[in-house]
Amino acid sequence: MPYVNKKRPYKKEYKQQKSRGEHSSRMERQRARRAYDKKGISRKGKDVSHKKALSKGGSNKDGTKLESPSKNRSRNQWIE
Q1: In angstroms, rounded to a whole number, what is the distance separating the alpha carbons of residues 25 and 59?
Q2: Is 17 domain-assigned?
Q3: Cβ atoms within 10 A of the Cβ of 31, count?
Q4: 34-64: buried (b, 16+ CB within 10 Å) or exposed (e) per residue?
Q5: Which of 53, 60, 73, 74 sits between 20 and 30 A of 80, alpha carbons compared?
Q6: How many domains would you assign to the chain?
Q7: Cα-Cα-Cα-Cα dihedral of 7, 28, 37, 45, to 10°?
Q8: What pTM was estimated for this model as a whole?
Q9: 51 inside domain
Q10: Which domain holds residue 77?
Q11: DSSP state of 56
Q12: How many angstroms separate the CA atoms of 45 and 72, rounded?
């Protein structure tokens, strides 16, 4: 278990996230989830999936849909 004897460096993690370009994608995902909540659509047990993946240059403007977590996350694997 990490950080058992010391506090988690949130500021450092945030800076690293911004430098890697992950911050903007995280904000897009958060805006998509909030849009569903605002419309009153229950997303219990589902993921908000982008029709064109954010990792492939998509955005909320390209469209979103509710999808099962296993289906959504299976095609979003990191390719190294």
Answers
A1: 8
A2: yes
A3: 13
A4: eebeeeeeeeeebbbbbeeebeeebeeeeeb
A5: 60
A6: 1
A7: -70
A8: 0.73
A9: no
A10: 8-38+62-80
A11: G
A12: 12
